[in-house]
């Protein structure tokens, strides 16, 4: 079961790799009025996608589905159901598990606190690769697509899986079958180019007036090569979730 928050952020490669394993994919388009289920069935995986809204907006009537999703994730954690959260999905997972979610900030050259939005293709460092099945076959650093302004603390008991200099908590495992990824390994070049157009204001806020052109150029350089590592990570995680 996939929870999709906005039209442009679907499961993409996650759906493709589920299909390759014979796993049926049912998408709940909550932005279009689909109801959030009350629970995750004992034969289901829960995948929660990204979106431009944030955990801090869960009380906004416009995003009434967020509180229902948090309840769904908490129930899945309680019942031991496998969960994968991507970007906003990882933030909702962290919140549901009791961790803090908040704007990612840093310091500028004059020491002032400023938003640190990560947007575009960049390296993530993968940790504990020798002990983590989800990271098997990955290099110490892999290029991934970042597209976020918020971050989270690791939930209690979580295993830290990946980081970047500007956002330490990029990926985590909770228990054996639950994972949160702040970055987007499901996205290919065509989707990345679509995001640049449809989310141009956010790109400019993160990267400046030339941000869209910069991200398009990065996409041409990195997207094809990044797909192999992204597919491996997704496949590894699906294998863990299906145990």
Description:
With 243 residues, the protein is α/β, with parallel strands linked by helices. The protein has a single domain, classed as Rossmann fold, CATH 3.40.50.880. 33% of the residues lie in helices and 25% in strands. It has six helices and 13 strands. Helix 1 packs parallel to helix 6. The protein starts with a strand and ends with a helix.
Helix content: 25-40%
| Total of DSSP H or I helical runs spanning 4+ residues | 6
Largest sheet: 9 strands, mixed
The succession of helices and strands, N to C, reads: EHEEHEHEEEEEEEEEHHH
Terminal residue distance: 17 Å
CATH homologous superfamily label:
Class I glutamine amidotransferase (GATase) domain
Overall mean pLDDT stands at 97
How big a fraction of the residues is strand?
15-25%
Short description:
With 243 residues, this protein is α/β, with parallel strands linked by helices. Helices cover 33% and strands 25% of the residues.
Helices and strands, with pairings:
Blueprint: E1 2-4, H1 13-20, E2 27-29, E3 46-48, H2 65-79, E4 83-86, H3 88-96, E5 101-103, E6 105-107, E7 113-115, E8 118-126, E9 141-148, E10 150-152, E11 159-164, E12 167-174, E13 178-181, H4 189-198, H5 200-207, H6 211-241
Parallel strand pairs: 1-2, 1-3, 3-4, 4-13
Antiparallel strand pairs: 5-10, 6-7, 8-9, 8-11, 11-12, 12-13
Helix pairs in contact: 1-6, 2-3, 4-6, 5-6
Give the key terms.
243 residues; alpha/beta; Rossmann fold; nine-stranded mixed β-sheet; two-stranded antiparallel ribbon; 6 helices; 13 strands; 25% strand; globular
């Amino acid at each position: 079961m996939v929870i999709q928050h906005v039209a442009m952020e679907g499961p993409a490669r996650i759906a493709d790799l589920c299909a390759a394993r014979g796993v049926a994919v049912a998408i709940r388009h909550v932005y279009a009025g689909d109801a959030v289920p009350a629970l995750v069935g004992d034969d289901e995986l829960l995948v929660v996608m990204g979106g431009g809204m944030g955990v801090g907006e869960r009380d906004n009537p416009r995003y009434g589905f967020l509180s229902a999703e948090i309840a769904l994730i908490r129930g899945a954690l309680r019942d031991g159901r496998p969960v994968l959260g991507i970007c906003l999905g990882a933030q909702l997972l962290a919140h549901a598990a009791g961790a803090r979610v908040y704007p990612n900030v840093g310091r500028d050259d004059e020491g002032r606190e400023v938003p640190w939005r990560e947007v575009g293709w960049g390296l993530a460092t993968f940790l504990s690769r020798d002990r983590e099945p989800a990271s098997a076959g990955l290099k110490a650093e892999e290029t991934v697509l970042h597209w976020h302004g918020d971050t989270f603390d690791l939930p209690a008991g979580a295993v830290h899986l990946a980081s970047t200099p500007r956002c330490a908590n990029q990926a985590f495992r909770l228990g054996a079958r639950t994972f949160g990824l702040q970055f987007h390994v499901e996205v290919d070049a065509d989707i990345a180019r679509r995001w640049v157009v449809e989310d141009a204001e956010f790109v400019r806020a993160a990267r400046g007036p030339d941000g869209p052109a910069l991200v398009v150029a990065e996409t041409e350089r990195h997207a094809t090569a990044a797909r192999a590592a992204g597919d491996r990570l997704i496949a590894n995680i699906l294998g863990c979730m299906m145990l």
